[in-house]
Structure formats: structure tokens, C-alpha cells
Fold each of these.
Amino acid sequence: MQVVLDYLKQNQARFVAELCELIRFPSVSAQPQHKPDLRACAEWLVQHCRCIGLEAKLYPTAGNPVVVAKTPRGKNSRKPHFMVYGHYDVQPPEPLELWKSPPFAPRREGRNLFARGSADNKGQHFAHLKAVEAYLKTGTPLPCDLTFVIEGEEEVGSANLAKFLKAHRAELKCAAAVVSDTGMPSPKHPALTYSLRGISAFEITLHGPARDLHSGGFGGAVDNPAMALCQLLGQLRDPNGRIAIPGFYDDVKPLSAYERKQFARLPGTDAELQKLTGVKKLFGERGFTPNEQRTARPTFEINGLTSGYQGEGSKTIVPAWARAKITCRLVPDQNPARVRKVVCDYLKKICPPTVRMEIEAGHGAEAYLVSPASAQAQAALRALREAFGHEPVLLREGGSIPIVNDFKKVLGVDTLLLGLGLPDGNAHSPNEKFSLDNFENGQRMSALLWRELSRC
Ligand code: BES
Ligand code: MN
């Protein structure tokens, strides 16, 4: 093991340079014009995996291709097999003017690497690849077989990956999935995440006049769809921060006293959260702490709101339409399709007769919850402790990784979520950054993890 750890230590500069190459692909899955960039990024990964000694292949899907890379293994290998999952697609970088340097030109400042995708998720899965490289290049036998599955559609809901898992069920049969695509509360608090929220996405459009109208000529006599949309959305949350949609909370279980006690032990204060987010005052569902609100309670979130004239200066119109992009974050036992239905039924009920409402369903995923007490979870905690030199914490997190539920349903395995992101990492925001200390500690964690997991 020491030669593996020494190899990692000696090659950090090269690893960072390689990670910068991976980051330079603008692999934005939400934007159709980047399709060729996604493919090029996936091809780069395949080549890179081959360079470090993995058997790698690109699999086309109905969407973006999947990279599969395996450690070389004997025909009848009896070693335990683990899967490492990651995603090479990234969120849109907009608004571009807020970036201090171009989003796809990685910039190093101190111990941080700034770029879209640096933390979410290229730097994180690349840490696992570097750990395996260390085994392979030093001729150290791995205690297990590994298969990397790195996809290009996580940020848009992983719609094509479940089918891929089903088609490759036999070769992907494994003892656990390992995913580094979550966070840790501070550099001194490495974390095992045992729960993620689910998600239900949709778009609401209100159609008003047949075309934009002169607001002087017609305003006052026809409804304004932007105003109608604001009034509709405004009814969906009460002053206590509770979602005011009948049935929305039907399947939500109360938090146990034990869990709330664990939440209370986490580092981070309300004042710090307020400073980090830049809000004037925190706001959330009454009766819950910010950590509970952000990770263990469901939400109704407006992600985008569009209507009328968005250019410079003014334009006096009654817009023809208004649209809201919505995602609800879900907690265990809530069903994404059912939540969407409950929301849509209510919207239809309260929609005024002056506009026509159209709702387009988007992606959906259930929440994830796994026992942090399993032997595998304990093995992961040992690897975290040793790699970071600090006692790890158990976390629930508010983000979603849609495919982990399919790992359970299709492959029958639990997922160990061992995130390397930090709260100030600006994921999905301008100036995303990845800590190079976490990159290095993450590589060590991965190297140690295979030893610990293979003993389970
Ligand atoms: N890395 C995140 C998931 C995440 C973020 C987990 C923060 C825990 C804490 C992932 O890349 C992501 O952003 N997922 C999307 C999924 C969605 C588009 C279906 C998300 O959560 O918005
Ligand atoms: Mn993301």
C-alpha cells in the first residue's frame, strides 16, 4: 500500500494537469449544441483510461455515450467486484459575465482549481481513476475488481442510463457502487452521505394573447400571463414556508428524534450559511433547522422564470406567454410522478380562465436512503478517517443523483456516497471550484477504500 500512496504523492502535478485537460471539454448536457463536446469528452476519458491500464470502451445510448472502464482481471476472478460511478457532463456555465475566468479554462489559485465541472463531477471521479492508476502503475495487486461507469447525462436526469444498466446487468454485477459526487461540511469533516433527496421536474407555460400586444392599446382589457403566473405560483407557499398544495406532504415521514439529534451535531452555523449564500435573511419551513430544510424536507423551487421582453431598455407589451421551470426536491417515500400529479392537479384547479395552461413533465427520481451501519459503510468510514486524518461524519444531503436508485433496483446494490465537494465550491454557480487538497485526499481515500471494502 505504501508504494501506492507514494506514487500518488509523487504525481500530483501531472494529475492536476490531466484534470485540466478533462475540464476543458465544455460538456454541458442541457444544451444541444454541446453534443459533440460531450462525445469528445467521453472519447478523451476512454483514451485516458486505456493509458492508465484499464480496459475501456465507449457505449452509445439514445443520449450521450457511457464510458465503461475495467481493471484487467482473470477469466474466473474470485475477487470482490465494485463499481465506481461518475458523470462527465456538467451544468450550463451561464451567467458567463460573473465568472472571474472563462468557465472551461481551468484556473489555479492557491489550492483551488476554478472551472465548470471541476468539482461536479470531473475532479471527483478523476480522483478514483488516479487511485487505480497508482495500483496498476506500481504493479500492486488490487484486492478487488473494479468497473468504472462514467455517464454524460446526470445533470439532465440520467434518462438513458437505467436501460444501459439493465442491458449490462451481468457484467455490472457487483458488491457495491461507490460514488464521489456529494459533499463534506468542511475540510476537517470527511463525510459518508446516507441519504439524497429525489426530484420531480416540470415546466409550466401560461398562454395569453395570440402574440405580444401593445400594453397601452390592450393592457387592462386582457390578462397578463406573467402576472397570472406570479399569482398562481404565489399561492403555492404559505408564510411559514410550507408548500400549500393539497397532498404534497402525504407520504413525508416525520424526522426521528435520533436523526434530529445527529443534525444538531453537524458543523456550520446559521450565520455562516447566510454569509455563504449572500442572502439578506435565511428562510425556510418553520419548525426545521436549515440543515433539515436543505436535506430532509421536500421543496418546491422555481429554477427559471421567463416572460416578455428580456433585452436592454424597455418594451411596453403584454407578453403572449409566461413560463416557469420547476423542480420539487423529494424525500424518502415520495413518488416523483405522484408529486407531479398532485402539483399539476392543483395548478389546473386554481388556474384562471383568462389563460391557457400547459404543463410539460421533465425528469424524476426518488430520494435515496441507506443504512450507514452496514459493514461496507463502516469500511468506507475507515478509509475516510485514514485518508483525511479526521473523524468522518454521516450526512443527509439535499441534492439528487437519480441513478443510485437504479443501482439498487437493477443491480441490487447499495451506493456508498463519499463526496469531495465543499460547501463553498460553487457547484451549479459561477466560479465553481475544486479543492486540490480534497483531490489528493480523495485519491488516497479511494486507494484505501478498496483494501477496506474487500475485507467486508
Ligand atoms: N453532484 C450533484 C448531486 C449533489 C449535490 C448531491 C449536492 C449532494 C449534494 C449532481 O451532479 C447534481 O447536481 N444532480 C442534479 C440531478 C438533477 C438534475 C436530476 C441535482 O441534484 O440537481
Ligand atoms: Mn450537479
Note: Residues 91, 120, 155, 427-428 surround manganese (II) ion (ligand 2) (CB under 6 Å).
Amino acid sequence: MTSESKPAHFLQNIIREDLAEGRVEQLTTRFPPEPNGYLHIGHAKSICLNFGLANEFGGQCNLRFDDTNPAKEEEEYVDAIKRDVSWLGFEWAGDVRYTSDYFDQLHQWAIYLIEQGKAYVCDLNAEQAREYRGTLKEPGKNSPYRDRTVEENLDLFARMTAGEFDEGSCSLRAKIDMAAPNINLRDPIIYRIKKMAHHQTGDKWCVYPSYDFAHGQSDAIEGISHSICTLEFEDHKPLYDWFIENLPVPARPRQYEFARLHLNYTVVSKRKLKQLVDEGFVDGWDDPRMPTISGLRRRGVTPASIRQFCEMIGVTRSDSTVDVGMLEYAIRDDLDKNAPRAMCVLKPLKVTLTNYPEGQQEMLSAPGHPVREDLPTRELPFTKTLYIEQEDFREEANKKYKRLVLSKKVRLRNAYVIQADEVIKNDAGEIVEVRCSVDLDTLGKDPADGIKPKGVIHWVSADNNVDCEVRLYDRLFNDESPDVGDKNFLESVNPDNLEVLTGCKAEIGLAEAQPEKGYQFERNGYFCRDSKYGTPDKPVFNRTIGLRDSWAKEQNK
Ligand code: ATP
Ligand code: MG
């Protein structure tokens, strides 16, 4: 899945060397989401990287749920994450794995550390513990419970595990160094009491390992050779290494960090995306405005375009923000090549062809795609009454307006040339109908008088079409960096991020449109049928993206 032309990135170089020099026999990576929300476009970068490297180097990539916090996790998220990874086109090695599969082993290793005098039960409450921890500038202080004997610690940890103590009353901490400059090494908590059922292990446990204690050891258990994570975990590496060095683990994973994806006009944080859902700014995690994988899918974005986007942005160790226009470019590029063409009138204006027989319908045919001959030809019913776009007609206009003007001609796309003869208005003075004459000698050829109309407009039969609703999405945020600084990102939500049009008229073939399959509605953009709303005879179409490509234009300046 890597393009041949692109130079190798630092992780590809590291892996190639590790394999060449025999430090690693087989590349094993993993994608380790916490099931506390749906995956977003940032996760796609990590997925494409981890699975992509495994594919490239003939290794394997595991899908492991890092499920150490039952308070925030749910089975719904587990299911959504599996669906999203598969949809992106990747296959994990073997069964789905869970950190909770290793809770027994992790618990034994916690006891092992106690036995080695390297972990102790501490009764400081959260506030006291914070005080004892010190700051970036000042060292911490030893907990008064730090010198408990091995026997006492074993007993207390057994009683913690048996549920004898209340949540928050004590925890198990690694005994490392309260004066360490790296705060992560100041006797971090490795087990906490949480009297809470877990989505995988049920009521079995009332103590749970911390993420930091579980993460590296889970990698070791799975034989992960290259444990790839984002830069914010760089400071945790000395702690992960400490655990690995002080425990009888079966393997030694090596951690490598890369920069997270930041996208402008977007937030990529499950916590914030959850807030948008919970506070009703959007209609669920898969709302087509959301930068989640499921939202993008429902909007009509293809997995190939997300993979292409991840390829384009590359992998580095320096944080930067990517222009969302680059994602839009990848989406448009894929749809342009693959989406069948169709016509849909968003804001219909009635056109009556006065010289066309009442009740007659002829079937015209149109190509499925301008160059893709494998896409089937469309059948377009042509009748006396049609719809065109309101904005495609004017009573008067200058020469720049290449559409239908009173007493002028225009070509109907894939059909005949018509001329506007008369305008009908309602009492409010609004145009409700245009009466035209059709030149039936113009199918696939110029009019006999040799005067070629300048404009081509789209249309749909008024008698034989699909009545539908169309949802036009705009950016979810109108601030380029909605969550940078002290801002409340919710205040940057674009109030005009959705326009719903009803009574739109699509060509009849779109009655069969499959949900999430992209079409180009000629002159209007790329659309797909919504998978959640609409009925069989009244579909809802989502605009995936407009036709215009402002990003590429910027690049060519
Ligand atoms: P969030 O802040 O959205 O909750 P997270 O890092 O806590 O993100 P995890 O479920 O722990 O989410 O992430 C799983 C994997 O995806 C991790 O390896 C993480 O580093 C990676 N990941 C998460 N967000 C991004 C991002 N924006 N860019 C690249 N990788 C990411
Ligand atoms: Mg997280």
C-alpha cells in the first residue's frame, strides 16, 4: 500500500534494518485503541501505519483493545472499532485481543513486583498523592507507606483484590524514585480499586491495572516487535522500560513514536467528539459531519481515499497541522475516478415543453462515467414536463451566464436543445414555470441552424424521477483551530454546517442507489444515499463533497 515513488520514512528504515540485521525475525505491530469512543481520522493514520507496515514487510498486525478503564468503555465502541478497521481494508492477525485477556498475568506480575520489593500498597488519597508527587521543578517526597514490608504489601494487595477496601482508599504503586526528573517514574500507580463491572471480564475484578502498567506488558505478551505510538508517550518510555526490565516478560518490545495527526477545522479527540454527541451538536458518532471513520463512511467517503490521504501526509516525528483540504482532495480524487454520474435537481423549477406530445416518454441514454466504460449506461426518461435547477434560468442575463435565458437556447445534458419562450409567475412574482420549445433534431448533434447553444444544464423528468431529500454539509467548525489555546471548542461550531433540501428530484435510476455508494450529481458535487434516514421511495442523499477543488488550486499557485 506504499507508493513506490515516495522516499521511505524513518519507521520503514528502522524496520528494514532490524530485519536485515536479524534483530527482529518477523515484524509484529499492533493497533491498540481504548474502546472509549469511535475511531476518528487521526486513528486512521495509526491504523494505516501499523497495518501498512505489517503488509509491507510481511509481518502481522494485531488489533488489541487497551481496555483497562471499565468506567469509560463500552461494547458498542468495541464493535464500532472492529467495523471501522475492517472497512478501512485491514485484517488483524488472529482473533481480536484485549488487554483484559491478560489481567491474570498482569496481576501476577504486580505480585511479582511486590515480592521483589518493587511495589507497595499506598494509602495516600488522590489529593495527598498529588502533593507528594512534586512538580516539574521540585522532586516528590516518599510516601509514608513506601517502606511497608513485602508480607504486609502482599496481604494488603490480596485484600484490595478481594474487595475489602473502598475505591480510592489505597492503590498499588511501583517503587521507583520519587526524585526522578521524569514524573512518570515517581512511584506511579500500577493497580487501582474500581468496584465496577468490565465489558469483557464482568464482575471478576475490582482492581484494574493502570494503562501504563498494562500497555508495555501486553505488547511483550503478544511479541510486538515495534510498538508504535504517538509522541506524547515518549515521556512514558522510561517507565515502560523499567517494567520490562523488572518483570520476567517473554519478549522486549521497542517503542517508536510518531507525530499525531492534527487537521485544521477539525477536532481529533474522542473526549471532545463525545461531547459533540452528548450535547446534541451532531446526531450521533456516525453523523456525516463528524471526523469519525463511521461519519466519513456515512458521508460517502471511500476507504481508498482515507488510505491515500494517510499516504500523502506521511509519517514524521514533528508535530504539524494538516490542511483539511488535503483530505478533501483525496476524497474528490477517488470519487472523480470511480463514482458513476447522475443528475439530480436540488431546487426544482418546472419546465414545460409546449411542442412535445402529452403523455409521451422516450428513454434517452447517458454514459455512466466520462471515461470509465465499465460503468453501466443510464436510462433517462424524457417527458413533456421536466425540472431544471432554479438557478439555471434567468429572464435576462449577460453573456457570462451560460444557462437558460428567456428567448435563448440551452442544451439539456444528454438530451435536446430547448429554448425558453415564456415565464409563468405566481402572485408573489416568483417564477414557477418556464414554457419552452424543444428542438427534437438535436440529440447528439448541433441545431440545424448551426448555432450551438453555449450552455449545458442538468434536468430530470417531472413525471418519472426519485423524490428525495438532500443534505448539504459544511465544515463542522468555522475556526481553523477550534481547540487550540484556552478556547472552548464548542463555541467554534459552525451554525450553518447543515442545509436540508426537500423535494429534490433525482434521475430514476437513483431509486436503486446503495447506501454509502458515491455518485457524482453532475454540476452539484458527490453524493451518496444515507444509510440511516430515508425510505425506499424517498431516499436521503448526503453531499460527500463539492466539485470544486480549492486545495489543488492553492498548490498550483
Ligand atoms: P483520543 O485523544 O482521541 O482519545 P487516544 O490516543 O487516546 O486518542 P487511543 O484509543 O488510545 O486514542 O488510540 C489508539 C491509537 O491511535 C494509539 O496508538 C494512538 O497513538 C493513535 N492515535 C490516536 N489519535 C491519533 C492521531 N490524532 N494521530 C495519529 N494517531 C493517533
Ligand atoms: Mg487514550
Note: The two ends are 30 Å apart (CA to CA).
